[in-house]
Amino acid sequence: MSKKNIIAGVVLVVGLAVSIYLWSTVGMGEDPGDQTVAQKMMDFTCPACKQTFQLSVADAGAMRRANNGEIVCPGCGATGAQKEDLEVVLGGGGFKDDSEEKPAEEAVAAEPAKPKPAQGGRKKINE
Questions:
Q1: CB 42 within 8 A of CB 82
Q2: Which of 91, 114, 110, 94 is nearest to 102 (CA)?
Q3: What pLDDT, on a 0 to 100 scale, did the predictor assign at position 8?
Q4: How confident is the model at residue 15 (pLDDT cuts 50, 70, 90)?
Q5: For an engineered disulfide with 76, which of 20, 49, 50, 84 has Cβ 3.0 to 4.6 Å away?
């Protein structure tokens, strides 16, 4: 065996070992997520005492995980605080109704005309 083959084998084994090590250790911690979104503040109102308070997205998520999906009021300790400025859209707003579609005749008329076959050029001599 030549020195070149031995060196190539050693480099291959070391590279494989390093890649297995990196593959097994990367991503073992908790994913922090997007820090810009996690730091955004949200307003909540307690239904029991009517207190308004703010939580970051990360804090609200942690509170929901700890309290079976509920937001707890820091003032009175009641659960069920509601997020402020929440807009609920029913009916899929922003989508076209079937009645808004063009009729088939208009759709055909809107298509560009097909190109005409080329004229002239080389012709067959023996026809």
A1: no
A2: 110
A3: 92
A4: very high
A5: 49
- pTM above threshold 0.70: no
**Among candidate residues 68, 65, 49, the one with its CA nearest the CA of residue 57:** 65
Question: What is the b/e burial string over 29-50, where b = at least 16 CB atoms within 10 angstroms of the residue's CB?
Answer: eeeeeeeeeeeeebebebeeee
Closest by Cα among 58, 62, 85 to 72: 62
DSSP per position, 20-47: HHHHHHTT-S-----HHHHT-EEEEE-T
Q: What is the pLDDT of residues 18-46, one digit of tens each?
A: 888 888 777 555 555 666 777 788 899 99
Residues 6+ apart with CB under 8 A from 70: 63, 64, 79, 80, 81
